[in-house]
Amino acid sequence: MNWEQLELNPRIRAALRRAKMKSVREVLCVSGLDLQRLTGLSRCDIQQLLTATASSYRSHPPVPALVLHRGECLRLESGLRLSVGCPLLDELLRGGLPVGGVTELSGESGAGKTQLALQLCLSVQYPTRYRGLDSGAVYICTEDSFPIRRLQQLIRGQSCLRSDIPPSLISRTQFSDRVYIEHAADLDSLQVCLSQRVPLLLARGLVRLLVVDSVAALFRSEFQADDWLERNKQLLTFSSTLHHLSQEFSTPVLCINQVTDVFNRADHSLGPLSSNVSPALGLAWANQVMVRLMIRRLQGTIARGDQCSALRRLEVVFAPHLARDGQDAAVWSEGVRGVSSSD
């Protein structure tokens, strides 16, 4: 491969010719400092050269080691996703939630976490050609009672939210019959639910989405500050169960999480740089999730007809296949929709 096939500044190409370096392979055999000495290029130019050269030999995008270890690379590359139910939010997530792995959605009270989770419980029931998984959802509540009235309202609003789906398909789908609700008041009952009842639903093909709302509630209430070691052990056992279910049954797992105040900027690595809060449970939990999303309320409001909603912003904190980005959104009677700059 010659230099003309790479996207390089003409000045860099000229320096390479003066140094009598004829092939891309020669660059990979020389250290960065030696390249600077041979070509007279700046450190920034050398970095651009090395990046372009390495990319020319890479046939596929890089895959994180953790993803390879868990065998998730095929699912990430296959593009199988669970749609959120909104084109703008799906665009942010490159199609929706990945089928393999644990996704965390954190945010303050009233930010819209449960709204999105309920919306996904309906989206999963559509056929795969409409970016669903043609199955039901199991929703585990660890704090409040299940918001059945809001779910019924979202069901009534499906024809408005999902204009891409034929009304006849929406009308004949028995949405409420395919949402299985569990309540777990303590860690023991949660573990029993995840180890016995949920696998049975998954094995029978009755569900293809697992939601835990919320993951922080029980771990915060059952352990004191001095019990951090035992709490982390229980947390790892819990996350191991979630990963096992996700991998064995190719099921997206969504964990709703609470937030905690940030007191030093070093903690911002766990949450959005623009926020003064961070997802709860610290690094022990952060290392167990594949995708971390965060939703927060903004200052402004937006009106549409006779409805008014506080602006939200859904942000990607980290993911192996997503850029760190965000999308404004609003909560309407029919569900959560992204807000474009023209709205």
Plain-language structure description:
This protein has 2 domains: 3-57, Orthogonal Bundle (DNA polymerase, domain 1), CATH 1.10.150; 78-338, Rossmann fold, CATH 3.40.50.300. The N and C termini lie far apart (48 Å). A 9-stranded mixed sheet has the order 5-4-6-7-3-10-11-12-13, sandwiched between helices. It has 15 helices and 13 strands. α8 (113-123) crosses α9 and α12 (187-203) packs parallel to α14 (228-249). It is globular and about 75 Å long. The chain is an alpha/beta fold and 343 residues long. The longest helix has 22 residues, at 228-249. The model is unreliable at 73-77 (pLDDT under 50). The protein has helices at residues 10-18, 24-28, 32-39, 43-56, 65-69, 73-78, 87-92, 113-123, 148-156, 158-161, 167-172, 187-203, 215-222, 228-249, 282-286, and strands at 81-82, 97-98, 102-106, 136-141, 179-183, 207-213, 253-257, 259-261, 277-279, 291-304, 307-318, 326-332, 335-338. Residues 78-259 form the RecA family profile domain. One of its GO terms (molecular function) is ATP binding. Belongs to the RecA family. RAD51 subfamily.
CATH top level assignment of the largest domain: Alpha Beta
Ends apart, CA distance between termini: 48 Å
Number of helices: 15
What's the number of extended β-strand segments? 13
| Average of the residue pLDDT scores | 87
The amount of helix comes to 25-40%
CATH architecture of the largest domain: 3-Layer(aba) Sandwich
* CATH level 3 topology of the largest domain: Rossmann fold
| Order of adjacent strands in the largest pleated sheet | 5-4-6-7-3-10-11-12-13
**Judging from the principal axes of the Cα atoms, what is the shape?**
globular
Number of domains: 2
How much strand?
A: 15-25%
Family: Belongs to the RecA family. RAD51 subfamily.
Domain RecA family profile: 78-259
Main location: nucleus
Protein name: DNA repair protein
